[in-house]
Write a structure and sequence with these properties.
This protein has eleven helices and no strands. By secondary structure, the protein is mainly α. Helix 9 (190-212) runs antiparallel to helix 10. The longest helix has 40 residues, at 33-72.
Amino acid sequence: MRTSPWTYFGLAFGLTWVFWIPAARFRGESGSLSVMALIALGGLAGPPLSALLLTYLNGGAAGLREFGHRLVDLRRIRPAWWGAIALLAPTTSLLGMLSARLTTGAWPVLSRPGELLASPVALLAFLVTTLLFGPLPEELGWRGYVQDRLQARWTPLTASLVLGLLWALWHLPLFFIRGTYHHQLGLGSLQSGLFFVGVVCASILTGWIYNGTNRSILAAVLVHFMDNLTGEFLDLPAQPQLHRSLWTIVITLLVSLAWRAALTRGARHASRTM
């Protein structure tokens, strides 16, 4: 059977929000055990379970094997793409700190890196939780399943933009759970607006890398992981974080222009060879 990408989004949103909406209604802090469990279950259930179920329904066991291959195959990622995966997030953070330094006249005080590096156990736990709660389960769905279905309808760039808008909306219940990062931003604030724009930018950059690595789910997981890892490891203060967001937008625009030009050239070449 063939399913619409909207079937995936309906299932992914439903399997996530069925946990996150009760978490918001509990009116408890995100640090309470019950609320933490609901938040974790929502993130771990929605995108990956929807992707695996629909992959099986569409392609059976062979479809799941192909899915798994794209998750573990290192050969899909050429050296240049490894560089993009490793450097995108650190580059925007460095540029953010540099431009904030020029604006404020002072370097940001970063306490989080020292705390994590002082404890190998804490650092390892940080790395594992950063991978498992966000990058790995989400990318099994966003890039692993639905990106290709959207690209069957639109160009890869447009598909990445549409996916980014829906991915941003998927986070909405978290803004109503007290104590979460999203609740602290405040829905409707400048910071929440930058968060939503940042998710769209991340979708475009990840879609670019995903397509450049022959549909590698692993590449998508790693670039998502590096983005979360860098942001949470540095824990930038407000001013350099704002600058980092602006630099992310600039880089995304540059990548989008270059990607669009490459897609246009590819389409023209294909039409001449037909």
